[in-house]
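Is magnesium ion placement plausible here? Inputs below.
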Amino acid sequence: MNARMNPWLILSAAVPLTALISCSSPKHIAAAENHESLLAQQGTDAVIWQHASAEAHWLYVQGYDHATWKLETNLTAIDAEKQMVDSMEWDRRPLAVIVDIDETVLDNSPYQVSAIKHDRTFDQATWREWTDKSAAKASPGALGFLQYAKSAGCEVFYITNRDIREKASTLKNLQDLGFPDADEKHLLLMEGTSDKTERRERVKATHQVLLLVGDQLRDFDERFKDRGVNHGWDQLNDLHDSLSQYFILLPNPMYGTWRDAIQGKGTDAEKHARVKAWFEKNGY
Ligand SMILES: [Mg+2]
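Reply from A.M.:
I modeled the complex. Tokens:
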């Protein structure tokens, strides 16, 4: 093999000496240099599962079946409450349900598939390319549930951490799929903070909220942002009763607060190092 064909000679010119010392093959050198690729590939199984598995599909159907049952229960409870108190004391605020959008009513797994195909992690520019298409499909069961909620007298509010600049494309996507209340009044996008508490409170100030649906526990309560102690499981105990009555959680193994708690913020190299350290620390 001549020098022009020898991959080691080519790599030796392009790769720092330290990398050559610590790695045993060209393949390892390439991987060590590309932390974004490593992080992207770590999500492969989760994305295949979310995008293609009948299991994921059925969990969504099951979740929305459960949401329908829970909403019926809460509607019945309101009627029963009215029998107990004088009509002057009735809560006459209109009824509402609150849903998140991404991985709750819209399926963005094609974006995640493309990200892995191109060895990329999430970034705003490619995300906007995707949402500008208004092409996400409805999550299984979402449309039927929200149509039922609407027919039962509930307004639907969409509280999402999509950016305010994604308003038009998001409304078009929801409207094209036939989602109820897909208009500016009922779409509360992110304006500055990913904390949805204030937006939830804004809806609760004018409506009786009977149910919330999301793919993150933070879609119900901001206390779930803190995973510093016991992975946030303590918050599950604290909020057990209200979660049981008012919240439906849908599956999303592709991303979320649970993963951010391990990866942290910073560069892809820093995130990858934290994930590596987590695996070194856990297990047996
Ligand atoms: Mg979501």
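Short version: The radius of gyration is 23 Å.
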